[in-house]
Each structure stands twice: as C-alpha cells, then as structure tokens.
C-alpha cells in the first residue's frame, strides 16, 4: 500500500469503522446544546505538538500545523484538526479534546441514528465523474486512484474484470484522480490526460484508464505525453487536440478538485475505495472484494 507520506513518518493503524445496531426500544438521545466558544479551551499548542510527536513517532522533518479548537460532535468535546506536512505531501488528522483541555481522544464519533459512514458519504461527490455500471445502483464504489501506482493497477484490473460481469446493474463504480505528486512524477500528467479524454468523449475514458494501466511499466516522466499520443493514435482520436489539452493543462483544475475531495476525506494511500461509504485501503483480491460487496 502506498502511504502518502510513509517515507516521512510512522502512521498509526487505521481505526475500524463500525457501529452496533440501534437497540430495540432505545430512547433517542437528549438534544445537545452548542458548547461555548471553543477558544476558551485551555490548550497549549506547543505542548500538544510535543505530545503528538511522541505519541505517533513523528520525525522532526515533518511539520505540524494545529488548528484552533472548534465545537465537536458532543457538548463535552472540542475538535482539533492537525495537518502534517512533509515537502509536497500532507496528511490531515482529527483529534478531540475535553472541555478542560486535559484529555485527548482519537477515533470516530458515530451518530446511532445515521449511517456510520455518513460524514464521508456527505463529502463524496460523484456528479459528472467517470463511471461504469447502472445509475441508481444499490451499491456504489468510489475509487481514488493514481495512474503511476502499481497497486492501483492491480486493483483497477480486479474491478474492471469482475464487477460488471458479476453484478451487472447492481453496482456502479466511479473513478476519482488522486495523483501522489510527492512520490509519482508523471501521475498528474496522466490524470490531466484522462480528464481531457473524458471531456471530449466520456465513453472513451475507460479505454484510456485501461490502456494507461496496461502500459504503466513503459511510461516515465519523459515520455508520458508521447504515450498519451500513442493511445490517441491507437484509438483513432484527435491526437493533436488531446496533446494541446494536456500541454495547456486544461483539465488540471478538475484533477485538483478531485485531490481536494480526497484530502477532505483524509485519503492518504492509493488505492482507496469507498464502498457505500465504507473505506477500503489497498488492493484487495477479488474474493475479498466480492465478499464485502455481497455483505
């Protein structure tokens, strides 16, 4: 699994996202009051940074930016967002601090009246994104991927060869660009090329997707534009128009929007797939993926 900043810090294990079913006859929780202004939390950012570095083994080369506390998910907690930065790579983490500022919590707070993945579902936007499968399918998969990532290549092959054949119109798969610029030097150009193809011919995007992954081992930062041209010639597309789109980075803003969405979801590895909101990181063999879809 390609961690976004794995060369820079030791990342703690991801928390399993689950919640127990609502108990029969359970009463709805009492209405929560809005906590007082979070700026009153007695929190020393310098002390907190030192504590987090010790807790998570964060090396000095990684800088930390700690946001001011803000109202959290319950009246007893404040939320503190922490941003880890190493070169071009970044990672966001969320912590919770008690009202008196002396207790730190890490994890996910769930509302038993909503999906345990509701926060992520609210952030996932797939309008006008490359997809295959039937609209309105009961199972939706959103894959954040990087064309230069070898594990993304393997996962893409699993999805493309099995999902439509096995599930027909029951599953819809969306693709979101998430080039890891810090470690992959031609992934962004390939993402821009993919968006250029999608802009001119949406149905052709998946040919591009499959072709780039199939030729991944032949592509490098010096020949990536030539390879995109080779794809256009092979598929009888307008190579000149596609090349101009890539050269002018006409679709880079679309790639940036996809990356921004991934960061808001705290995606820090590729591939990362959201299966009806459930986060799956790394490439999964088909038998495991199928079991999760069936569940």
Q: What does the average pLDDT come to? A: 86
Largest sheet: 5 strands, antiparallel
Q: State the total count of DSSP E strands.
A: 12
Instruction: Characterize the overall form.
Output: globular
Helix content class:
25-40%
Nearest-angstrom radius of gyration? 21 Å
Number of helices: 9
- N-end to C-end Cα span: 24 Å
> What is the H-and-E element order?
EHEEEEEHEEHEHHHHHEEEH
- Which residue ranges are poorly predicted, with pLDDT under 50 across at least 5 consecutive positions? 1-38
Q: Which secondary-structure class do the elements indicate?
A: alpha+beta
What share of residues are in beta strands?
15-25%
Can you give a write-up of this model?
This protein is of the alpha+beta class and 295 residues long. It is 35% helix and 19% strand. It has nine helices and twelve strands. It has helices at residues 45-56, 118-123, 150-167, 187-200, 205-214, 224-234, 239-247, 252-264, 286-294, and strands at residues 2-3, 63-66, 70-71, 77-86, 89-98, 104-105, 131-132, 139-145, 171-177, 269-270, 272-275, 278-281. Strands 2, 3, 4, 5 and 6 form a five-stranded antiparallel β-sheet that branches. A five-stranded mixed β-sheet has the order 7-9-8-11-12. Strands 1-10 form a two-stranded antiparallel sheet. Helix 4 packs antiparallel against helix 5 (205-214), helix 4 (187-200) crosses helix 7 and helix 6 (224-234) packs antiparallel against helix 7. The longest helix has 18 residues, at 150-167. It is globular, with a radius of gyration of 21 Å. Residues 1-38 have low confidence and may be disordered.
